Amino acid sequence: MAKHSKGQETKIIDLSKYRQKQEEQKAEKENLQAAYEYEEEQAEEEHAPEEKKRRLSSSVPRGVYIACLVLVGVIVGLGLWVNREYLTWDNMKEWARLQVLGSESGDGFPVQITGSNVAESNFLTSGGSAVLLSNTALTIVSGEGKEELSVRHDLNQPVLRGAGGKYLLYNSGSTGYMVLSGTKTIVDKVAERDIITGCVSANGKYALGLEGSYGASKLEVYMPDGSLQYEYPFANDYITALAMNYDGTYGAVCTVRGEKGEMVSQLIIFDFSNTEPVASFETRGNLLIAAYWGENGVIYGVGDAALVSGKSADYQFQEYDYQGRQLTACCLDAGRAFLSISAYEHVGPSTLLVFNGGEAFGEQNPVRVEMGKRIEAISVSGGTAGLLAAGEIVFCDYHTGMELGRAEAGADAKSLALASERKAFVLGISEVRTAEVG
Questions:
Q1: Which residues contact 405 (CB under 8 A, 6 or more apart)?
Q2: What angle do CA 80, 82, 86 make, to 5 degrees?
Q3: DSSP letter at 6?
Q4: E strands present in 322-366
Q5: Is pLDDT at 404 greater than 80 in this prediction?
Q6: DSSP states along 212-256
Q7: Is the peptide bond before 110 cis (omega within 30 degrees of 0)?
Q8: Are strands 176-181 and 184-190 parallel, antiparallel or unpaired?
Q9: At residue 311, what are phi and psi to the nearest 5 degrees?
Q10: Which alpha helices (H) appear in 60-163, and where do they start and end?
Q11: How much helix, strand and coil, in percent to the nearest 5, is found in the chain?
């Protein structure tokens, strides 16, 4: 029988309390574990975007980023190059003004013409506004019908030429002329001889063809401030049309002369840093009446019997004969020539010919659009050509010749100028109005 020491007490354990304590310790341990796991999940969620970004950046090669940046740079550069004609200081100031103040609403159309008449050739568009030269004033009207500019003149036979927001006004057969940049008059001078024709470049340089002695003529080229840069006298040739490239460093001059009873016309190319012409092309029985030097380097000379075209890269010219049909209207724009020809003298069907600059003449060039009526005027905007025929405007895609829609112009419509691919300014006898295809 076991013996117990003297004075030792027996310890009694309460089993129910012991179990309860174990369960509380277990529950506390589980709560601590759950809290720890929750904190780990929160930390993983917070670092997930950074980890995903790190994995993504490590999975995309560095060269792809470089290629994307180069592509964006090329697209931006191409956009600036294509629109460099409009990136002038005056245009940028006007853009900034519109961003700050917004466009001002006008009184709407129709707008009455200042003066008694406007010649069909003295009506054009610039920056979405209509530009017209009457017998008394040059007027610019916004697309909302607000008069943006009105400059009075005293020219008896006024002629308007424009490029990139620059305007040359001259007195045909007399000596007075003006040059405007936007709404500012830059030059107001008198030429030394009567003016035959003229042109202006987008940077403000301009050229005049002047009467010479004994039926000859003279070319004069001026800097934007009106100082003479270049001159070339013709001994036997009479200037009929002028054109300059974008920056006014080169020019195309159309001339005519008589030779043994035959009419001989020339398209002559000038580099204004050289004293003599750099190239020329001769055409016979064909009076050249208009010239154009496109942004794409294509050069046109429009004749009454044939079109002359070539490229500034090599000055190799070709001729497209109208086959005896009459020229009824022409427009030189977008690096292309838009000509209307007809077999009839006054009325009847006509054909629109769209020449794609510098390409060889063939089945696809020119594009042909047959019209049941006589085309009286042509204007271009974007990829659309507007054709005025018998009081109606026909809008067509000039790449394919497909008709896009029609709009009424009015019985007194003399000319048109497209404000957009769907809207046209219409020149009437006493007013300017708009016509739009739905």
A1: 395, 422, 437, 438
A2: 75
A3: T
A4: 326-333, 336-342, 350-356
A5: yes
A6: -GGG-EEEEEE-TTS-EEEEEEESS-EEEEEEE-TTSSEEEEEEE
A7: yes
A8: antiparallel
A9: -120, 150
A10: 62-82, 89-101
A11: 20, 45, 35
- For CA atoms 95, 178, 332, 330, the dihedral sign is positive
Beta-bridge mates of residue 198 = 208
**Using omega within 30 degrees of 0 as the cis cutoff, is the peptide bond preceding 224 cis?**
no
For residue 436, the tally of other CB atoms under 10 A from its CB is 13
**Beta-bridge partners for 330:** 339
Taking only the tens place, the pLDDT of each residue in 322-363 is 999 999 999 999 999 999 999 999 899 999 999 997 788 887
* Phi, psi at 405, each rounded to 5°: 160, 175
Confidence at residue 438, expressed as pLDDT on a 0 to 100 scale: 77
Q: Distance (Å, rounded) from C-alpha 297 to C-alpha 294?
A: 5
* φ/ψ (deg, to 5) at 103: -80, 140
- Between CA 435 and CA 326 the distance in angstroms is 28
**Residue 125: which of 332, 393, 420 has the closest Cα?**
420
Token look-up 């112009």 returns 409
Residue 145: Cβ-neighbour burial (10 angstroms; 0-12, 13-18, 19+): middle
Q: In this structure, are strands 166-171 and 350-356 parallel, antiparallel, or unpaired?
A: unpaired
Q: What SS3 state is found at 237?
A: coil
pTM (two decimals): 0.78
> Which residue has tokens 């090669």?
61
Tokens of 170: 């001259």
Reported as type and span, the H/E element at residue 36 is helix 15-59
